[in-house]
């Protein structure tokens, strides 16, 4: 493993005993320590993904290799009980490899539902007929699509 002057990791190499080519994962960090590029090299082939962030340090884009992703934090025009949830730092939408997701929040900034469009047939593990997320008085997630979650008196998921 390699590290920069601040001690943050900048790379790791995996070597294999059977003579296979080593795999190396290297990152380039901004002055603030955020990863702005990641390159994976497997033998002679390599793939680089670049990342951009907003002034608050939130990931805005990841492009290159097998991913093309963008994330939004719109201050207005959102959905759910809190259409201005993006102003509080909540992700309001994303597009990842052509699949769009919209995130809706309640007034306590809790995610209440998502809407996915453009996903391949059968790709979603969440029932489209039950897209909601529910919470108890302690803020624990008690409903997640068609799942019910239970907690003990110490708010531990059981």
What report would you give on this structure?
The protein is mostly beta strands and 158 residues long. It has a domain at 1-51. It has no helices and 13 strands. The chain has strands at 2-3, 9-14, 23-29, 35-42, 45-53, 59-64, 67-72, 93-96, 99-105, 111-117, 133-135, 141-144, 147-148. The protein has a 10-stranded antiparallel sheet, with no helix packed on it. A hairpin with a 5-residue loop joins β5 and β6. The protein is extended, with a radius of gyration of 20 Å. 7% of the residues are buried. This is RHS repeat protein. It comes from Labedella phragmitis.
Task: Please give the largest β-sheet.
Answer: 10 strands, antiparallel
Which spans have pLDDT < 50 for at least 5 consecutive residues? Answer: none
Shape: extended
Structural class computed from helices and strand pairing: mainly beta
Q: Roughly what percent helix?
A: under 10%
Radius of gyration based on Cα positions: 20 Å
Order of adjacent strands in the largest pleated sheet: 1-2-3-4-5-6-7-8-9-10
Strand proportion: 35-45%
Given the structure, what is the number of helices? 0
- Beta strand count: 13
Oligomer: single chain
Average pLDDT works out at 90
Order of helices and strands: EEEEEEEEEEEEE
Distance between the termini: 38 Å
Protein name: RHS repeat protein
